[in-house]
Amino acid sequence: NDAGLYKCVSTNNNYDETTWIGHLHVEDARSNAIFHRVERKDLPQAPSQPIAITINSNSIELVWNIQSLDIIDYLIEYYDINSDKTNLEWKRYLTKTKNSRQIINNLKSDSIYQFMIRARNSFGYGSPSILSELIETKSNQQLND
Prior knowledge:
There is one protein chain. The chain has a single domain (42-144), classed as Sandwich (Immunoglobulin-like). It is globular and about 65 Å long. The chain is mostly beta strands. The longest helix has 5 residues, at 140-144. It is built from one helix and ten strands; from the N terminus they run ββββββββββα.
């Protein structure tokens, strides 16, 4: 039985790593369940590159564009460039909204982040946007000046 939790880990030459986890459920061959394979054309298009419009010490407001109209929500993935390079961990934020504008809170001050976005419709998640430019949160000192 191949059912279970699967983890995909991808690492590049700089030892940057990203992880995706999925659960596989296997139906009995005699089941009456109807299987439907999702066609790539049914998934939402990739959003445009996210752009920071407001940057504070612990938050960044992002905007992006998308051509698809049937969006349910977005998955924003990001990481802190300053974190341990040998164990780079992408954080995930589910927007729970169709708006193509989002504030990401609870970031570290004086840190550099990079973001990418995936749109979701009733068929699933589409391809990711291209990565944002590197975005640096302000230091607490900058806010007091």
